[in-house]
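Name: MBL fold metallo-hydrolase
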Amino acid sequence: MTDILPLSRRGLLSHAGLAVTGLAAAATIGLPAAATAAGPASKPPVPRAQVPGVYRIPVGDSVITAIADGYGTLPLAAVTGATRPEADALGRAAFVPPGDLPIDFNAYLIETPKRRILVDTGGGTALGAGAGKLNRNLAAAGIDPKSIDVLLITHLHLDHIGGMLTAAGAPAFPNAELLVHAKERAYWTDDAMRTRAPADFRGAFDAARAALNAYARRTTLLERDGQEVVSGVTIMELPGHTPGHVGVRVASGARQHLIWGDIIHVPHLQFAQPAWGVVFDVDGALAVKTRKAMLDMAAADGLDVSGMHLVFPGPGHVVRSGNAYAFAPARWQYDI
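Structure predicted for MBL fold metallo-hydrolase:
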C-alpha cells in the first residue's frame, strides 16, 4: 500500500515552494542568457488581423464552405421603413454600436462528390478596404480558382459579382460555367432600365454587363423554381430584391441547407422588422413579401440556412416570435 504523506500548512508550503522553484528553473531552460539575466525576450507585436475567414458546413456527402469576403457599412437611410428611435433600440438590444450599420459580405463554395460550385464572389475591390478578401480566403481553404466548375450568381448586384473579374477584366474563374437567372440577365442588360435608373446607379448596370460579357461563351440561364444545377443542388426563386434573385438549396441524404442570398441585409433590424427593406430592392413590396414567406417557411420547417449578409459564417435557424423573427446561429462544428 502506498504511504500517503500527512498534510500540514507548513508541509504544504514546503512542497509548494519546491514546486515553484522547480517551475522557475524549468522556465529558464533553453532561454538565452540575456533573456534570463536581463528579463524576458522581446515579444511579437499584438495581432491586428483575424485568421482566414473560412468555415465548413457538412450536408450529407457534400460540404458547403463559407468564405468571408469582408464587411462594410450602410447608413440607416438605406433601410426603407426604419425609424431612428426603433433602429437604435434594436441596435442596443443586439449590442450593435450606434452609427452606420454593419454588413457582412459572404460567399459559399459547394463541393459535391463531382463538382465545385461557387455561389457569389463578394465585392472585389469595389467596396472599400474592408472587403475583397475572397481570393485570400479561398487560398486559405486550399481552393484554386481554376478548380471552380460552376459560378452560380444569386443576383447581379456589385457586392455579389465584384470578384468575378481580374483587375484586367478577365474571368477570375477561367474554367467555370456561369449560371444566372434569365430574368436577372434580362433586367441588367435592358437599356431602358439603365436609362431610367438614377445616374449614380447606372454604374451597377455597367458592372453587371461587364461580368456577363466576360463569361458569355459559357453561360447557362436558369429559368424555373426548383431547377437542378447539379445532382442535389437546386435553385429557389426569391424575387423582389432583384427580378431574378435566387437562393440555392443543397440536399444530400437526410440533410439539406438553404443559401438564401439577400433575404436579409441587416440582421439585427430585419429579423425583428421584416417589413423593412433596403433602397437596393428593385421591387420593395415584393421583396418584403418574399422575405416574410421565406422566414415563415424557414421557421416552420426548421431549415438550416445561410445568407450573404448574415454575420459570418452565417449558418443557423430562424425562430418565430409573434409577428417578428429571431436568428439562432448554429453551434460551431468541429468535425465534418
